[in-house]
Automatic annotation (TrEMBL):
<dbReference type="InterPro" id="IPR029069">
    <property type="entry name" value="HotDog_dom_sf"/>
</dbReference>
<dbReference type="GO" id="GO:0047617">
    <property type="term" value="F:fatty acyl-CoA hydrolase activity"/>
</dbReference>
<protein>
    <submittedName>
        <fullName>Thioesterase family protein</fullName>
    </submittedName>
</protein>
<dbReference type="Pfam" id="PF13279">
    <property type="entry name" value="4HBT_2"/>
</dbReference>
<dbReference type="InterPro" id="IPR050563">
    <property type="entry name" value="4-hydroxybenzoyl-CoA_TE"/>
</dbReference>
Amino acid sequence: MVSFIKEISFRWSDLDPNFHVRHSAYYDFGAQHRIEILEQLGLTLRVMQTQSFGPVLFREECVFRKELKLSDKIFIHTKTSKMKADASRWSIIHEFRKEDDTLCAVITVDGAWMDTKLRKLASPTPEIAIQALSIFPKSDDFVGL
């Protein structure tokens, strides 16, 4: 698998006054896709709650390349671009592509796992997180940290 791919549908509320997709909607779609992927890999919200850990982001950045409009058929492609061997730190990229594969935007998030009881980075990384991220598709330019 090269990446997780999902077709996304825009809603009227995703538009800005210029009638194209508002900047913050991209981040919402990226966050939703990450959680859906983790769920598919067995790393459910219930598992994270039971084991008292969850993802924490240090950086979230979007580069906008092409305008997206309500009627566009868009696919979000998600993969890891960087990761430590123990999956304690990672970067995930989301590419927003039109039906003809035109790249419209790229979100990059840098994150780690947080112990929700201690309110600090989880150490060691929970085994289920290691397992999930080890099978997460990697970008062509993937870098091991």
